[in-house]
């Protein structure tokens, strides 16, 4: 069985686009700055960061096609709903002010777009297998450490999420997006938890398993967002297209009917 069947060819001639690396670098920078600033920010300043984040996201999307824009919109909607469920309702993790900061929804959009940009970049396409092996080893060792009994805080959830991440990588149809998601989400989780912007619950609320801060395989949650965005975007675009055709047909019928009525009156 070829576990790399959805990976790009080894010896392909891949193009490096500056835009892809700019999106990634810009998002990595914004994530670090915003999460550190939020450590002591007021609610009003959080809202200000949210406005700035929306401006940045919209600006980055100007250079993308309809499908990517739809994917980002779905990612933002799905992730925001997930934030309210997992944090506010379930208490799986808690933000510093016990809210969902206004910059989180557009932040999810930028994170998703970064995963897409890195996945299509020449570097990831050329070195996909090496990057996958690196991620497997790093996340695997991190997960093993969490359940080894050595750290004071165990991380059973992280180990389970690591297995889910492996399934995404080798069974999913967009493994490079999931690989890229590992880097940007691990980056933001390590910074966010270290800065105290949010904290994961010591015991997760559903199965009462130990949970790291952050869980080692936390990227799997973000991969779920990516999978939903990638899978639902074509369906919604097709639905909007059909709706547009129906609307045009109805509009034509109405105009023809009005024309007939006006002629009869004349």
Automatic annotation (TrEMBL):
What keywords are annotated for this sequence in UniProt? Membrane, Transmembrane, Transmembrane helix
Domain of life from the UniProt record: Bacteria
- Spans traversing the lipid bilayer: 21-37, 43-63, 70-90, 102-119, 131-148, 154-170, 177-198, 218-240
UniProt-recorded name of the protein: Uncharacterized protein
């Amino acid at each position: 069985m070829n576990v790399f069947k959805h990976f790009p060819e080894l010896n392909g001639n891949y193009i490096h686009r500056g835009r892809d690396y700019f999106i990634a670098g810009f998002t990595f920078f914004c994530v670090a700055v915003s999460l550190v600033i939020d450590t002591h920010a007021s609610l009003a300043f959080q809202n200000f960061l949210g406005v700035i984040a929306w401006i940045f996201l919209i600006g980055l999307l100007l250079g993308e096609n309809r499908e990517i824009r739809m994917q980002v919109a779905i990612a933002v909607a799905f992730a925001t709903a997930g934030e309210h469920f997992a944090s506010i309702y379930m208490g799986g993790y808690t933000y510093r002010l016990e809210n969902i900061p206004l910059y989180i929804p557009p932040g999810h959009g930028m994170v998703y777009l970064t995963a897409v940009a890195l996945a299509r970049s020449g570097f990831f396409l050329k070195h996909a297998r090496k990057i996958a092996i690196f991620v497997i080893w790093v996340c695997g060792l991190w997960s093993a450490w969490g359940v080894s009994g050595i750290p004071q805080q165990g991380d059973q959830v992280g180990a389970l999420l690591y297995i889910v991440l492996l399934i995404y990588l080798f069974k999913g149809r967009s493994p490079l997006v999931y690989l890229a998601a590992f880097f940007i989400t691990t980056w933001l989780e390590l910074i966010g938890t270290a800065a105290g912007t949010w904290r994961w619950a010591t015991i997760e609320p559903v199965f009462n398993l130990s949970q790291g801060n952050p869980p080692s395989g936390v990227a799997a949650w973000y991969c779920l967002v990516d999978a939903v965005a990638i899978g639902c975007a074509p369906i919604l675009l097709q639905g909007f297209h059909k709706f547009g055709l129906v609307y045009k047909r109805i509009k034509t019928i109405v105009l023809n009917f009005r024309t007939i009525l006006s002629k009869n009156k004349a």
